[in-house]
Model the fold of this input.
Amino acid sequence: MSSDNSKIQNIINDCPTIDKVGAEERVARFQTRSIKGESKLMGLKMTLNMIDLTTLEGKDTQGKVKQMCYKAEHLHDAIPGLPTVAAVCVYPSMVKVAKNALKHTDIKVASVATAFPGGQSPLAVKIADTKFAVDQGADEVDMVISRGKFMEGSYAYVFDEIAAIKDACGNARLKVILETGELATLDDVRLASDLAIHAGADFIKTSTGKIQPAATMPVTLTMLMAIKDHYDKTGIMIGMKPAGGISTSKLALHYLVMVNEVLGEKWLSNEWFRFGASSLANDVLMQIAKAVNGPYQSADYFSID
Amino acid sequence: MSRLEILKTYKIYIGGLFPRTESGRYYVPKNGKNEPLGNLCLCSRKDVRNAVSAARKATGWAERTAFNRGQILYRIAEMLEGRKAQFVEELKMQGTNQKAAEAEVNLAVDRIVYYAGWCDKYQQILGSVNPVASSHFNFSVPEAMGVVGVVCPEEYSLIGLVSLVLPVICGGNTCVVLASESQPLCAVTFAEVLHASDLPGGVINILTGSKKEMVAPIASHMDVNAIIYGDDDEVQFKALSIAAADNVKRVSRLSKDWTKPENQDLYQIAETLEIKTTWHPIENIGGASSGY
Done:
């Protein structure tokens, strides 16, 4: 799929402006919901099942990835009946290791690609990066958009790039990282979301986790609204993945409230909603242990990463 | 026109801040003459939770040099000295006479200086080099346990608190303190002193309110490593000991007449220290040997 100017122009024309004050107020209301007892426990388990357990460090080793894959499957064996996480998210060079470690499970392997996290490489390199990840067995590809081009106003370039990567993905699902911490305004976030959705994204994702601020609720709301508008118009569902900065159960539950109230129950599964996080899992586990056992918990009794 | 009297709202101390209780509740303790002492926070288990996580975040306190901890403890004494008058007033309001109140505040200052001095000395006394029957250099050093819960006595609200809390932080621990329920004024004012000294936020956290309500969550909290119990409620102490057994917390019961100058010592610091022993391989050089 390649763009012509009129198509891009249509996307820009259809892209609404975002009321920042309104978005912030709406988000503040999601955070006043009090979720207790059984619903809380259900929400926590749902959260666990939506996590993409992530390690994206230069110092990642095969041992570290294997250890994380073990954790993905055995979150906390002391409490029976816990779900697994949705996926593990690693660099392309670690896909094979993760795939082997998880071959007897349903846990997906996601790989970042396209010169993550900067994205400052030629298209050919990015396509090769993506193909490598897919050949290694990645079920999902997390690409970054070219923020520099986006800021220059070369929207057609951004669009074509996403479409080209989508082609390279084959059957793997494509998550498009907008890196909203680098996009200046919610209007930009909305436009980038629309471009990604029209160019073939299966998921849109806030951040790489390498830039501050990472995922915030107003940004996520803006992206959810883009998904909603697209769904209302075409009936096609797009997934959402906030990533980075969500490290407490309480915040995760607020995100679930937001997804439910903006998009509805259909999105409340790991097919359509994910959390990109590394430390969130342990906090959720500690909250579940508190709900099951009674006493407040200590990190000393939970696995590291 | 007559002035409307202001009854001070005493807030709690968590992580170096003075929040109100998460529960939004308050209580008004009264003295012997049935006069209200102030509006005090009636804390809940969630305040306990917040205080414990603040204390856990502050455990870098143990990494500071022993000398620096001593300096900071001494600074607390200096700040208390400067605010003596306020403490005397509050003690009198709670029912102590002028002379006893002055003596209590003076002793509190002296006791802080006493423990400030121990900060870089207890290691030498409590540590040891141990004789072993193999070619190892074997030595033991005391280390901080981590987060300590401190339940203060009801009487002697200032000196009771100082006597129990100072040895705990002297050893590098951080703590969550349940102040005297019936006489809480000095505890909160002491938090203001701590705030003005160089003590990092979270090393001492002070909560007021119903002990009955707060002792259980602190006793069962998996992230609390030890408890110092300074009150004299047998039933409460028994329940606390049972709950504390779940994560094998060390529970120490300390009830002494804290107004006596001699009731302070090194072994009280040891109550919240644990001993780490290291076996370090050595060579026997030239057939020479020694006992260790």
About this structure: Chain A has twelve helices and eight strands.
